[in-house]
Amino acid sequence: MQIKVAIVDDDEGIRSSLVSLIRRAANLKLVGDFPSAEAAIKEIPARAPDVVLMDINLPGMNGVECVRQLKTLLPQVQFMMLTVYEDSDSLFNSFKAGASGYLLKRTASARLIEAIRDVHQGGSPMTPQLARRVVQFLSQPRDEGQALPRLTPGEKEFLDQLAKGYAYKEIADRMKISIDTVRSYVRTVYEKLHVHSRTEAVVKYLRG
C-alpha cells in the first residue's frame, strides 16, 4: 500500500530535495508540495495525504498553527514536523497542535523515510535528544486538581500500550481487538482527554 505524502516548506531547495526523496522511495507517493501554510490549508484537504511533512518557520502563518488548523479538518492525517528548531517550546507546541513526530532537517534520508512509514503506522518518531526532553517533562510534578476523566478499562489498557510506544496494529494484536476498535479508542480517548495527538495523550495519561 502506498503512503501518500505532502510537503510544506518555504525553502525551495529543501522542498525540491524532499520531493526527489519521496519520489524515489518505494511505497511512498507525493501528492503535493507547498511553499506556505496558506497554500497548504487551501490545497491539502483535496489531496488527501496520509502523512504531511511540515516546516515550522513559514512566511505568514507558522507551521504549528497550520498543523492545528489542518488537524481539525483532517484528524486522520499524521503530521511530522521537519525543522531546524530543537527547542522544547517548538517541540511541545507542535505536539499540542496535533503533530505525531518531530525530526530535524539534518536527519539522514534513510531515517526520514523510515520515520514517514513509522508515523503512518502510529509511531511518534523523534530524535533521542528530543525524546529525552519528553521524559524530563513527564518527570515534572503534576498540577493538583487535574485528575484524568473517567476512562473505561479498555481505554486505560489502550493508553498503557500507547505509552509503551506500540503502533496501532501492534496494539490491536496485543489487546486481541480489531484495528477498527483501536481507531475507536483513539477517537474516544482523544475526546475525553481533550488532546489532538498521540504524544499529548500519552503525556496527559502518564502525568495523571
Structure report:
The radius of gyration is 17 Å and the shape is globular. A 5-stranded parallel sheet has the order 2-1-3-4-5, sandwiched between helices. The protein contains 10 helices and 5 strands. The protein has 208 residues and is an alpha/beta fold. The longest helix has 15 residues, at 179-193. Helix 3 packs parallel to helix 4 (88-97), helix 7 crosses helix 8 and helix 8 (168-175) crosses helix 9 (179-193). It has helices at residues 12-24, 37-47, 63-73, 88-97, 109-120, 128-138, 153-163, 168-175, 179-193, 198-207; strands at 3-8, 28-34, 51-54, 78-83, 101-104. The N and C termini lie far apart (38 Å).
Structural class: alpha/beta
Q: In percent, how helical is the residue content?
A: 40-55%
Overall mean confidence score, pLDDT: 85
Ends apart, CA distance between termini: 38 Å
Main beta-sheet strand count, sense and barrel state: 5 strands, parallel
The tally of helices reads 10
CA-atom Rg in angstroms: 17 Å
Number of strands: 5
Q: Strand order, biggest sheet?
A: 2-1-3-4-5
Strand-residue proportion: 5-15%
Outline type: globular
**H/E element string?**
EHEHEHEHEHHHHHH
Question: Which structural traits does this protein have?
Answer:
single chain, 208 residues, alpha/beta
Topology:
Blueprint: E1 3-8, H1 12-24, E2 28-34, H2 37-47, E3 51-54, H3 63-73, E4 78-83, H4 88-97, E5 101-104, H5 109-120, H6 128-138, H7 153-163, H8 168-175, H9 179-193, H10 198-207
Parallel strand pairs: 1-2, 1-3, 3-4, 4-5
Helix pairs in contact: 2-3, 3-4, 7-8, 7-9, 7-10, 8-9, 9-10
